[in-house]
Amino acid sequence: MIDQVHKYYDGSHVLKGIMLTVPRGQSILFRGDNGSGKSTLLRTICGLLRSTTGRVRWMDGLEKEDQRTIGYVPERFPQLNMSPYEYLMAMGRIQRMSDRDIQSRLDELMGLFRMEPYRNQRMNGFSKGMLQKVNLVQAMLRKPDLLVLDEPLSGLDVDAQRKLQQLLIEMHREGTALMMVCHESDLLDGVAERIITLEMGLVVGDELVKVSESGADRVEPVTRKILLRTESACTLIVCCRMSEELHLLLDAHEAVAMLESYEEEEDKKTDGLTPCLSVKVQSPSSDDVLRLILGAGGSVVSVQQISAGSTENEEGILCASH
């Protein structure tokens, strides 16, 4: 879960309260113009950048960070003064792979991308396309739980692009979650089952798509999240006792514009905190969302009507019940 993530660079507000729930194993394509915050968001998810406020919370049941394997393909890969074989063997050992397993995986991936003739050549003379192949292989040496790719098609010829597409489809079928940024996204459209659009650090589009079995056909939109504008009337619902399944249902609901988690103090007789969820929804759909919450075993704490053009504090609470 990406929970209200903000990121500032030298006074610039790059990420503005990003709030996303990502089911385990989902494949996501991030779209947006240069400067929209895509690469910054990917690096924050990987743990390479620390958010200014907010956090990335993992809900995969793994207690220790080193139990989770994340592969990362950066947008640019350096021209190192070493061979692909030397570099990739070192990367595999850092990931505690045996030399035998590294060699087996290298044979598979280098053969796929036709890198065998170059495995012992120095990378400081490589083309951008060949460097990108090394970049891809290092991220997939140890099959990751999450594979993050920032412009993975950059520099690749058409044959290598199609082989990468098929490889990503196979990895996703085997359970690897994918998060991708790509300007030339036609090929990756066939891999993604969710497309998120960023604009100036904000999520302005969130669409689930239907991927064909081959993964190569154009995607078919099946539902699109409707984002509320500040001038739209909406309802703020606060609920508690939510299951993870209910959280995912609300996040996917087309009329829900914002989900925000927080903790509220319990009765003074207890020492714990009650996890709550604030749900901002289009007013015409508020009854449907309330039925969804109650039907899934959630408890509604309050319902607050927010008129067009007003702030949440200017409106009264319509009800408050547990």
From TrEMBL:
Pfam families: ABC_tran (PF00005). Keywords: ATP-binding, Nucleotide-binding, Transport. PROSITE patterns: ABC_TRANSPORTER_1 (PS00211), ABC_TRANSPORTER_2 (PS50893). It comes from the Bacteria. This is ABC transporter ATP-binding protein. InterPro entries: AAA+_ATPase, ABC_transporter-like_ATP-bd, ABC_transporter-like_CS, ABC_Transporter_VariousFunc, P-loop_NTPase. Residues 1-225 form the ABC transporter domain. The keyword Cell inner membrane does not apply. It comes from Paenibacillus agilis. One of its GO terms (molecular function) is ATP binding. Signal peptide: none annotated. The lineage of its organism: Bacteria, Bacillati, Bacillota, Bacilli, Bacillales.
